[in-house]
Amino acid sequence: MNKQKKGFIHIGFSSILMVFTMLCLVTFATLSLITANSDYRLSLKVAEKTTAYYEADTAARNYLQQLDLALADLYANCDDSQTFFEKAADLIPELKTEDTLTAESPTIVGNCPTCTFQVTINDVQNLYVTLELLYPEHPGDEFYKVTQWQTVTNNEPVIDDDSLHLYQGN
After folding, report:
1. What is the pLDDT of residues 142-156, one digit of tens each?
2. How many structural domains does the chain have?
3. What is the pTM assigned to this prediction?
4. How far apart are the first and last CA of the chain?
5. Are 113 and 133 in contact (CB under 8 A)?
6. Domain assignment of residue 158, yes or no
7. Is residue 109 within 8 Å of 145, Cβ to Cβ?
8. Is residue 48 part of a domain?
9. What crossing angle do the helices spanning 81-91 and 13-77 adopt, rounded to 10°?
């Protein structure tokens, strides 16, 4: 009366534990790979945006360097502040170092002319710089004071034709 069951595979607890462990390891490895890939893409985007900002910052500083030299020459050739500010109003929009830089003519706010220029960072961001022009009392004084150095985001929605055409009903 020996009954033997043929075709039955004896799977013990240790085998089931091993299969479960392997499934867990494969799942966690896949999740780790997906997370690492998304972190890598995010770090590339951050690096791209940071590089674009510092390129715009460099363009703005190059413009300020040119403005310093031009205002120093202008200061040497002018006798009074009125003449200095009038000639500076004509000079400032003509100075341009980059294609992404746009300078506006100085406007009078109070008794000091104010100059504004912007540098394009990317499609949705600009670096705005506002300067208050000063007439130096002594030969070593500054020609301007920076009153604004700000990144401004253009929040206009980008309209793409990638919309889904959903069923609206009758």
Report:
1. 888 999 999 998 876
2. 1
3. 0.70
4. 76
5. yes
6. no
7. no
8. yes
9. 130
